[in-house]
Amino acid sequence: MGLRRRYLPLAGLLAAVIGVQLAASATNSTFYLTQLTMAAYYCLVIIGLCLLMGYAGQISLGHAGFFAIGGYLSAALTSHNFTAVSDTLLMRTLDRAGLLLHHQSLYGDSLLSLQPWLAFFIAIGVAVLIAFVLGIPVLKLKGHYLAMATLGFGIIIYRIVLAAEFFGEADGISEVPPFQLMPGLAVSGDFSARVQNYYIAWALLLFGLLLLLNLINSRMGRALRAIHGSEEAAEAIGINTARAKLYTFVISAAFAAVAGSLLTHFNGGIGPSEASVMKSVRYVAIVAVGGMANLWGAMAMGIILNFMSLRGMFGSYDDAVFGGVLLLIMLFAPQGILSLRLKNILWAKRPMTGK
Hints:
67% of the residues lie in helices and 5% in strands. It is mainly alpha-helical. It has a domain at 36-280. The strands form two sheets. A two-stranded antiparallel ribbon has the order 1-2. The chain has a two-stranded antiparallel ribbon with strand order 3-4. The chain is globular, with a radius of gyration of 22 Å.
């Protein structure tokens, strides 16, 4: 019965994903699939952050940095021209292994870059390594000290991508090639492959949800809930809290890096705004709206709010809207919008008359 309750919502979500695509195709509205695809990738970051915040009780204001590591490294390694070092032993070895991509620029010049699969694994590996090294000292902090430390990390990544010529400086990186997952299946911004990319993104999100649902219902998940309730009590019953928090931080960072890499290939480029502090604040706001310990709520709010933002519904007030949403949720529904009861709020805010 427990397994049915766990997996039945996933089947329902899969049916909804298919239904949306069929409805969009039937009404010639497939342009909506572009924003839904991007929202699915952003939701991968959000559910990873939900695991960290809602179950391990650790806040991070630097997850846009991990997203940028995945995106920028994938973009740079697959679009940078390595012809100048093509005669080195490493490049010759990679070429013989079929891990280099020979292609041409828009002007007909020969280019040599890394295959997207190799760049993808390098990007995720770097993000995981940084999360591991950073997490060892940082996760010893608590409360606002932890928030400030992760914020500092995010600012460092933002300044690096903004200043480094290798990462395109303020212009970012464009002309990122498609990510060929297998013959006939690629992550790209090709309009003719909208439906295909839609299913790739949502399949990845469903797989991520499946992994996290199994994790939080495992022994590790019970340990995380114990840590969230009381770290001292968790240690008293024999839980290695430092290791559990570190592993959760690394998993969460890996989710962000995977999303950054694939979304970069889908968009064909990436800019410094993806590493900005406001992006991290946005992720935290969405997790707060959906519910800190509610993967389904965080995912649902992530899809809705990101879709509205990507459609330009908030205009130039985009960042202000997410900041306001975070403020309102903290004031009126700290457990998430799904726990909100309008009647209770109205009664709580009624002035006391003394009668």
